[in-house]
Amino acid sequence: MTDIRNKKIGINSLALRILGFISMVCGSVGYLKGYGYDGLEALGWFSFAIFAFLLSEGCVNTSDRVLYIRRFAIFTLIAEPCYDLYRYKTLFSLGHQSVMGTLFIGLLIILLLEYLRKRYENLMLDGIVMLALGAAAYWFTDLYNFDYGGCGIIMIIAFYVSGHVKYRKLLQTAVLFYIAFFISTGSIVYVTLGGLQYPVSGEAFALLALPVIWLYNERRGPNGMILRVALYAVYPAHLLALYVMRLAELL
After folding, report:
1. Following DSSP, what letter does each residue of 61-83 receive, concatenated?
2. CA dist list (Å): 166 to 142, 162, 226
3. Using CA atoms, how far apart are residues 82 and 57, in angstroms rounded to an integer?
4. Which of 50, 135, 60 is nearest to 99 (CA)?
5. b/e per residue, 6-34, with b = 16+ CB within 10 A?
6. What are the start-end ranges of the H helices in 184-224?
């Protein structure tokens, strides 16, 4: 008989990804719909928090980091023209860069920090490099209008660091709260309470993802090669689908 005490109750990474994809599509539709759909668009931050967390878990625990980087880089390049079609109806534009670019930059930062942590075991060096890379990436992603920008970079680094500290949930909550209410650069969503409307930053929706993330049971779930490739393809595929819907005037 299987000992149920050895089973981790919660949701696996595949279930988290599915939740992330659903909120991602809602956010993309909300952007296209425009005024009056800010709340729907803000669900993109809910999605980003989930994928930032999964990135911090995946790139550290993968058995082949070179393959992980290569696969991520390929789909980042594939996603960019799809994003430009979705947003600008053209195959190439430097106006904004897709979220895949933001995640890829975060991936490179995490892998470098992980290398330094294991190679030198020097907390001061780790801290200095983390601050320097974080500041440079924050400036770069905001300057070139990467989706979720500098706030997204901070979130990715925070999820990585929280995996190595005792009070993981406290750190995650503190950082996401700081992003949402002190350095927010995103859209404003008006929440109605008691007949009054209160402005809330779009980044605050990332905080709503934390209880879901904390349900993660450290299991992958189904993880075949075809499924892994398909999961990477969801992002550019949904952008192309929404682009076609725009052309057909369905959005």
Report:
1. H-S-HHHHHHHHHHHHHHHHHHH
2. 31, 8, 36
3. 27
4. 50
5. eeeeebbbebbbebbbebbbbbbbbbbee
6. 204-207, 210-213
Any idea where the domains of the chain sit in the sequence? Answer: 11-247
Which residues contact residue 171 at a Cβ distance below 8 angstroms, ignoring those fewer than 6 apart? 158, 161, 162, 165
Q: pLDDT 10s digit of each residue in the chain, 251 long?
A: 334 444 567 899 999 999 999 999 999 999 998 866 778 888 999 999 999 999 999 888 888 889 999 999 999 999 999 999 999 999 999 999 999 999 999 999 999 999 888 888 888 888 899 999 999 999 999 999 999 999 999 999 999 999 988 899 999 999 999 999 888 766 777 766 677 777 888 899 999 999 999 999 988 888 888 888 899 999 999 999 999 999 988 87
Using alpha carbons, select from 209, 237, 250 the residue that is nearest to residue 25.
Answer: 237
What is the enclosing helix (H) or strand (E) of 168?
Answer: helix 168-182
